[in-house]
Design brief:
Keywords: Aminotransferase, Pyridoxal phosphate, Transferase. The chain has helices at 43-57, 77-89, 106-117, 133-144, 158-167, 221-234, 274-277, 301-312, 318-328, 330-356, 379-390, 416-430; strands spanning 11-13, 24-26, 64-65, 127-130, 150-154, 173-174, 178-179, 182-186, 205-209, 237-241, 267-272, 285-288, 360-363, 369-373, 392-393, 395-396, 407-411. By secondary structure, it is of the alpha/beta class. It is globular, with a radius of gyration of 23 Å. The protein binds pyridoxal-5'-phosphate (PLP).
Length: 434
C-alpha cells in the first residue's frame, strides 16, 4: 500500500481572518508577538504604498524617487566582467565550484584586509564575507540573543531597531518616543549629529552608523574617540556600521572605527559593496570581528560569530565574491571610487539646491544622503507636500526615529537627469517659499 501523504491538522476559523466574509484555515502556531509591536510596516513599503496611491491619482505624472536608498547606475565594466566570467565558469567542469568557506574566499578576505584594514592592525581571519550588511546585522542580533540591551542613534537606519523589536529586546511603541527598552541617542544639528554620551545610560550593544543613514553626518576622529572611550568604560560592544565609509572625503573623519586605538577591544564593524559598486542586488558585504573582543567571561566573540556564520549561512555567492575581488583590484577599485564620486556629485547638486531655496541642509558632503530640516512641520506632511507639488518621493525623517521628526531625507542614488529634473521641480515650487 502506498504511504499516505502527511496532512497537518488544520483548523478552519473565522477569527484569524483579515477579511471576515472569507473563511481561512489557521494553523495552531502562535505568532511571535513581537511582530505586533512593529509599526505600520517597515518605512519603505509605506512610502511605496503612498507613491502608488499618488500615481493612481495622477496617472500622467512622472514620479522621481529621491526616497529609497537603492542604487541606479550600472555595475562598472571591469567588475561586471569578472562576475560574468565567474558565472560562465560555473557552467564548465573546470570552472565549477559548490559550497565555499562560510567565512568567504581566502583571497577576498585577504584583499579586503589589504585595502581597508591592514593599516589599522586587523587580520584577514577577522573578516567574514557575507551576503550584505543587513543580513549580518540580523545574524549579530541572533548571536547576542534577546537578553542584551541596545542603544541606537536617533535617527538611524531602521534595521537596528526593528531587528531588536523582533528579537524581543523591547517593549511596545509609543508615538514620538519610540520603543520602550531601547536607548535612543538623539543626534540633532545642534550637537553636530553626535549624541550627548553623558546622557546615555549603559547598554550592552551600541549601534552606530557613520556616515549616518539618514543624516549624512560623518563622525570625526574626536567624536569616535569619545564613543570608543564610552563603550570601553561601560563594557559595551559597538556595532559600527560603515556601509558608506568610502563616501568620506574629510580626512578628519575615519573610514573605519579601527582607526581609533582600543576599538579592537570594544567594536565590531560591518560594511558592504552595495553602495560602493551597485551591489544592492548582487549582495556582498563583510563584518570584522577582532580576536581581542571578549564577552564578560573572557570568551572571544569571534568564535561565536564564526559559529553563527557556519550554522545559518553557507558562504557568499561564488559570482558575487568574484565581483567583490574585482572591486578590490586596481582597476575595479578605480571604477568603484568613480561611481562613489558620481553619487557624491548628485548629493552636492541636491545639497546646493535645498540650500539655495533657504532650507536648513545637512549631510551630503561625506555621504549620499542630504538631510533637510522643516522645523515645526511633521515629516510625513512634508513628504506629502513634496510628492503632491513636485511628483518627488523623499523619505520622511520620523521613519528613522523620533528625533527625525521635522526632517526629510533626499537620496543621491539617482540617474543624473532625474536629479537635475528633481532640482528644477523643487526650485519651481519652493523658490521664495522661505
Ligand atoms: C546604514 C546601512 N547599513 C546597511 C545597509 C544594508 O546593506 P546591504 O545591502 O549590504 O545589506 C544599508 C542599506 O541601505 C544601510 O543604509
Amino acid at each position: 500500500m502506498e504511504a499516505q501523504p502527511h496532512r497537518p491538522k488544520l483548523a478552519v476559523k473565522t477569527s484569524c481572518v483579515a477579511a471576515p466574509e472569507k473563511q481561512q484555515v489557521c494553523t495552531g502556531v502562535r505568532r511571535n508577538e513581537n511582530f505586533g509591536k512593529l509599526q505600520a510596516g517597515y518605512l519603505f513599503p509605506e512610502i511605496a504604498r503612498r507613491r502608488r496611491a499618488h500615481q493612481e491619482k495622477h496617472p500622467d505624472a512622472r514620479v522621481i524617487s529621491l526616497g529609497i536608498g537603492d542604487t541606479t547606475e550600472p555595475i562598472p565594466r571591469f567588475i561586471a566582467d569578472a562576475m560574468q566570467r565567474a558565472a560562465a565558469g560555473l557552467g564548465t567542469l573546470e570552472g565549477y565550484s559548490g559550497y565555499g568557506a562560510e567565512q568567504g574566499r581566502g583571497e577576498v578576505r585577504e584583499a579586503l584586509c589589504e585595502r581597508f584594514y591592514a593599516h589599522v592592525g586587523r587580520k584577514a581571519s577577522e573578516i567574514f564575507v557575507s551576503d550584505g550588511s543587513k543580513c549580518d546585522i540580523g545574524r549579530l542580533q541572533m548571536m547576542f540573543g534577546a537578553g542584551v540591551s541596545v542603544a541606537v542613534q536617533d535617527p538611524s537606519y531602521p534595521v537596528y531597531v526593528d531587528s531588536s523589536v523582533i528579537m524581543g529586546m523591547t517593549g511596545g511603541y509609543q508615538e514620538g518616543r519610540g520603543f520602550g527598552g531601547i536607548q535612543y541617542m538623539p543626534c540633532r544639528p545642534e550637537s553636530d549629529f553626535f549624541p550627548d554620551l553623558r546622557k546615555v545610560g549603559r547598554t550592552d550593544l551600541i549601534f552606530f552608523c557613520s556616515p549616518n543613514n539618514p543624516t549624512g553626518a560623518a563622525a570625526t576622529r574626536a567624536q569616535l574617540t569619545e564613543l570608543v572611550a564610552h563603550a570601553r568604560e561601560r563594557g559595551s560592544i559597538l556595532i559600527y556600521d560603515a556601509a558608506y565609509a568610502l563616501y568620506i572625503s574629510d580626512p578628519d573623519c575615519p573610514r573605519t572605527i579601527f582607526e581609533i586605538p582600543g576599538a579592537e577591544e570594544c567594536a565590531i564593524e560591518t560594511c558592504s559593496f552595495s553602495k560602493y559598486a551597485g551591489f544592492t542586488g548582487v549582495r556582498l558585504g563583510w563584518t570584522v570581528v577582532p580576536e581581542a573582543l571578549r564577552y564578560a567571561d573572557g570568551q572571544p566573540v569571534i568564535a561565536d560569530f564564526n559559529r553563527i556564520m557556519t550554522t545559518v549561512f553557507n558562504g557568499a555567492s561564488v559570482v558575487a565574491q568574484a565581483g567583490g575581488l574585482a572591486c578590490l583590484q586596481e582597476e575595479g577599485f578605480k571604477e568603484m571610487t568613480e561611481l562613489v564620486a558620481f553619487y557624491k556629485e548628485n548629493a552636492e547638486i541636491l545639497r546646493r539646491a535645498f540650500t539655495e531655496l533657504g532650507f536648513s541642509v545637512y549631510g551630503g558632503t561625506n555621504a549620499p544622503y542630504v538631510w533637510v530640516g522643516f522645523p515645526g512641520q511633521a515629516s510625513w506632511d512634508v513628504f506629502a507636500t513634496i510628492l503632491e507639488r513636485c511628483n518627488l518621493v523623499t523619505t520622511p525623517g520620523s521613519g528613522f526615529g523620533p528625533a527625525g521628526e521635522g526632517f526629510v531625507r533626499a537620496s543621491a542614488f539617482g540617474h543624473r537627469d532625474d536629479i537635475l529634473e528633481a532640482v528644477e521641480r523643487l526650485k519651481r515650487e519652493f523658490r521664495g517659499a522661505k
